[in-house]
Amino acid sequence: MARNKVQFQKGLSEAEFSTRYGTEDLCHAALVGWRWPNGFVCPDCGRTAHCIVQRGTRRLFQCNACRKQTSVRAGTLFASSKLPLTTWFRAMYLITQSKKGIASIELGRRLGVTQTSAWLMKHKLMQVMLERNASARLKGRIEMDDAYIGGERPGRHGRGAAGKTPFVAAVETTDDGKPHRVILRRVDGFRSKALAGLAEKALTPDAKGVSDGLACFRAVVGAGCEHTAIVTGSGRKAARTPAFAWVNTLLGNVKAALVGTYRAVRDKHVPRYLAEFEYRFNRRYDLAAMIPRLAVVAARTAPMPYTLIKLADVYA
């Protein structure tokens, strides 16, 4: 039996990572190239003529026209961080190359920083992933299912139970029945309005959704999608229904990763953790390219203060 080319791809080894991004100079040069691929452009006046001003360890770009000075970090996700770029780049490496993710306490140990710093870095990068995922749309045949994140609590079980965060999982399959791309989005409940809104944002009008008998999934029709409901019942038999093989596999992997990697996931941060898994899965065809792809978007993302990351209740 032939090996799965995606699963057994070379990826980016730690040695190769160090060769590409092992020093501050290498990281700085890479970030300059990603932020200004056609050469420096002044963020104030748009002119390109400039000179380099060295202030201690800082390298500033000074516009020859308006004399404005700026750094490659200014106005990006990396702005105002005292951590070196080598630490940021290694964080991107550890987060993108790990199939099940990495907890902030382990990330802090690997990077040599506090758990608080590692947590903030990780959530900033996951926010970048979430915002990047928001523009993606699935097409063709799509397996859909409802799911929850959260531990067991006394009282009501199943849908509507306390302490659980509802989210929708959907898998776009290829013509030969293989999984291609996925979406994992938190919803405020399994109601028609929520599913209609999700379909408008995340599915193309010609998509062909397949779901179980949960009534709210019919709402995707309002976004121009087709819908087929297959009543599966509950229990193990339902989980083995061939029509939902890939979405059930996806949910099993997501829940195993969350339970096995993270001690706890707060409801308001759930969209970021789901976005992290979604981002890696949809870009799994080229593991080595994930770092530059994430860094390019981070270089074009406005700074994120701690209060925004810590306190915000985010919806994908």
Automatic annotation (TrEMBL):
SMART domains registered for this protein in UniProt: DDE_Tnp_IS1595
UniProt-listed Pfam families: DDE_Tnp_IS1595 (PF12762), Zn_ribbon_IS1595 (PF12760)
Segments traversing the membrane: none
Domain ISXO2-like transposase span(s) in chain numbering: 137-282
Coiled-coil stretches noted in the UniProt entry, renumbered to this chain: none
Protein name: Transposase-like zinc ribbon protein
Species name: Aquabacter spiritensis
